[in-house]
Write a structure and sequence with these properties.
The complex is a heterodimer. Chain A is of the alpha/beta class. Chain A has 17 helices and ten strands. In chain A, the strands form two sheets. A seven-stranded mixed beta sheet of chain A has the order 3-2-1-4-8-6-9, sandwiched between helices. Chain A has a three-stranded mixed beta sheet with strand order 5-10-7. In chain A, strand 2, helix 4 and strand 3 form a beta-alpha-beta unit. Chain B starts with a helix and ends in a 6-residue tail after the last helix. Classes of the chains: A alpha/beta, B mainly alpha. At the A-B interface, helix 3 and strand 7 of A face helix 1 of B.
């Protein structure tokens, strides 16, 4: 079941076919380039050390290409949705009871109050609001009591803390009898029609476990981080989620979601063993035969992280949580291969391995530096083959990415800054990737609200070290260009210069706007 | 016919919505105007309409606050 743009949008059909055609061409170039690179690495006459570097570099490239295929295949599947955000369903005829859960712990009063006010104002009569207060400090407890009374919420508390957000939802769920559960983080403000628009979708399919809706940050003026984090969210919610949904593999994002209580209960509630309980629980639901869906219509406005510290902490949690599920997914693939369709397995593998991109990127960043500073090559390819395979793949990928973001009104500048922010996060992804793979259990940390002072630069030493290495290699590389001027040196210097620009953004993001 | 307490409850509800909801909604809608597809001139117009809505909301708050005060002070018990 999908919701797509109107068929009347015939004017956009040509653009749709053009984009789909470009995506097919990108696939062809990716495959040709991957084969060419593998052949060159296999047959190149280099030393063991050089070949070792080359293999690592190639594996990193293959990882990125695999994820590029995942991204573009999702975009190919969503088809007309590229040009039109999905409209919501018709107004609800049946209005079954919904329990609206708002888990909160030590949240700023004004943020909590705004969310409760918006939920109170939902135009759905059969709703019951539950404020799940997990605060341990008296001040926050008192505020929760006062606000619960003011907005007619049932206040839920528990004696023993376990499983953070997942735990308190599970505890509360034991006493619920409503057919549906809607979950909102404290910083997410739903619009009045949230439930009435989504209910027909849920009611139409008894095997549908949940309908996920996008997050949209409305505090983009607050800081550069919030603005770029919103663009990153847009890449995810505008295209990745639509692709996943069209492949029947949409994941729950933990907020702005309407869930069937029976489905959640059938898998034992939210998974309390993961810091990304939403992703882990989605996997459980889907391997148990439940369907999931994404409705790409902004029904809720929220707050993104407003400083680098909050952003990195959020990304660390997401990365650690998602990577930690990778093992489970692979185990389940071998033990229960028919629990999901191949496309669903592919999508879950893509999602859980995505944050390992930190490792891929670090090799792609360091290999040119090593080549320039120590003369150890890791990229073997004839310049003509490079020009005929890699250059078209790169240009087309970038062109499709920026043009499709443009269709959704995001400027090239904002898309570039979002990319730069991802680069600044590479050290976090690397560390979180290791922790996730080793099964280190992270602590669930609530994303801090508000613009706080910048992170001390001493704490950003991995980013600064990478930046310094790239600058040194850039200067040395320019010097080499003057005297040697080979294609290999010039290409590596160009990549290093690009990486310098991306890593320099650490200063841009760590400073307050206008500060 | 609502009695005095019901009337006060109703008015306080109205005041709460004016105080909490309107500024939030207008802030959120304003932040997403760039997605609307409007040109910059139309976006500026929409933005100024939202500002006007906020200003109107302030006026409504004053009216509701005045009404609440009046009902509280009044001897009338049925409205």
């Amino acid at each position: 079941m999908r919701y797509t743009g109107s068929d009347k949008e015939d004017g956009k059909t040509a653009g749709l076919y053009f984009t789909k055609g470009l995506i097919v061409i990108v696939f062809v170039f990716i495959i040709v380039y991957a084969i060419s690179r593998s052949v060159f690495v296999t047959f190149a006459q280099y030393s063991f050390l050089e070949k070792s570097f080359a293999v690592v570099f190639l594996l990193s490239e293959l990882f990125i290409m695999f994820h590029a295929i995942g991204y573009f295949s999702g975009m190919y599947r969503i088809g007309r949705g590229i040009f039109a955000a999905q409209p919501p369903g018709p107004a609800a005829s049946a209005q079954p009871p919904v329990a609206i859960l708002v888990p909160a712990r030590h949240e700023p009063r004004d943020v909590l109050e705004g969310t409760l006010a918006c939920i109170y104002n939902l135009d759905y009569p059969e709703k019951r609001i539950y404020l799940l207060d997990d605060s341990s400090e008296e001040r926050y407890k008192e505020e929760a009591e006062e606000l619960a009374g003011r907005y007619k919420c049932a206040l839920f508390r528990r004696q023993e803390r376990h499983g953070a957000k997942a735990g308190i939802i599970n505890d509360c769920m034991k006493g619920l009898d409503e057919k549906y559960i809607a979950i909102f983080d404290v910083d997410q403000n739903p619009m009045p029609s949230f439930l009435s628009r989504l209910m027909p979708i849920m009611e139409a399919d008894p095997k549908l476990a949940f309908v996920q809706t996008p997050q949209f940050y409305s505090n983009t003026d607050a800081s550069r981080i919030a603005d770029s984090a919103n663009t990153q969210q847009a890449v995810f919610y505008e295209y990745v989620c639509e692709g996943k949904s069209s492949g029947g593999a949409m994941i729950c994002c933990g907020t702005n979601v309407l869930m069937r209580r029976e489905a959640l209960a059938s898998v034992g509630g939210f998974d309390e063993t993961s810091v990304t309980e939403d992703f882990s629980t989605s996997f459980r639901l889907q391997t148990n035969g439940w369907r999931t869906l994404y409705c790409n219509h902004v029904n809720t406005f929220g707050m993104g992280p407003e400083n680098l510290s909050a952003y990195l902490s959020q990304q660390n949690r997401w990365a650690m949580g998602n990577v930690s599920i990778l093992g489970r997914i692979l185990r389940a693939l071998f033990t229960r291969p028919f629990a999901m369709k191949p496309l669903q397995w592919f999508e879950y593998f893509i999602t859980s391995s995505y944050y390992l991109a930190g490792w891929a990127y670090i090799f792609l960043v360091l290999c040119p530096v090593i080549y320039i500073l120590f003369g150890i090559p890791s990229f073997f390819m004839h310049p003509v083959v490079y020009t005929l395979t890699f250059v078209p793949y790169l240009i087309l990928s970038v062109a499709i990415f920026y043009s499709t973001m443009g269709i959704r009104r995001y400027t090239p500048k904002s898309a570039f800054l979002a990319q730069a922010l991802s680069f600044v996060t590479i050290p976090v992804y690397i560390r979180a990737g290791i922790s996730g793979l080793l099964g280190v259990r992270g602590k669930f940390q609530v994303t801090k609200k508000g613009v706080s002072p910048r992170i001390p630069y001493l704490r950003l030493w991995p980013q600064l070290l990478l930046l310094a290495l790239n600058y040194i290699a850039l200067l040395w590389g320019i010097n080499k260009c003057i005297y040697e001027r080979t294609t290999a040196i010039m290409l590596n210097v160009a990549w290093i210069a690009y990486h310098c620009i991306l890593f320099s953004s650490v200063f841009y993001f760590n400073e307050e706007k206008g500060g | 016919m609502p009695d005095k307490n019901e009337m006060l409850e109703f008015l306080e509800e109205c005041l709460r919505r004016e105080e909490e909801i309107i500024p939030l909604y207008s802030k959120h809608v304003k932040s997403s105007l760039f997605l609307s597809g409007f040109n910059s001139e139309d976006r500026a117009k929409a933005g100024s309409i939202l500002d006007k809505l906020r200003a109107d909301s302030m006026r409504h708050r004053k009216i509701f606050s005045g009404l609440i005060k009046k009902v509280k002070e009044s001897g009338t018990d049925v409205y």
